[in-house]
Amino acid sequence: MAVSVSSSEVYELAESLAKCEKDAKAMAQLSSSYLRLLRGTKSPDPFIRKKVGNFIARFFAHFPGSGSEALEAFFDLCEDDDDQVRLTAIRELPFLCKVLKEYLPKIVDVLAQLLQTEDEAELRMNQSALSQLYKKEVSGTLKGLFSQVRGLYSKLSI
Fold this sequence. Notes:
Layout: H1 7-19, H2 24-28, H3 31-38, H4 46-59, H5 67-78, H6 83-96, H7 104-114, H8 120-136, H9 138-157
Helix pairs in contact: 1-3, 1-4, 4-6, 5-6, 6-8, 7-8, 7-9, 8-9
């Protein structure tokens, strides 16, 4: 079984998901296609990883049962070696919370960790993503931020 997917396969998977986007029953039957799409985050090609990030975000709400796997794949993109892949992933993070708000504190926690970057563009993107989330959902955003602060405080207390 291949670890990654090719560029053409990414587009085929996304096309099949897009065709069923308005039909919940048909979309539910394509969960294996969505999981296959997640494997694109392991591609050696940064262009594929960037496109996969867009598609994960686009179809995320349709596969709540795969939310954890999708988030982990997405977080891998946020730590990618390629700065364009990271920027795309960070920009898409707020969209993952639109429907599945239970992931908001975890996403905010990760964004807070990513604030440690020295890359100016990435820092601005992180700040923008946090600001968007704060405007949409104050409570969940603060939970995520306080979780990060609590984790840092416990490390200093040792």
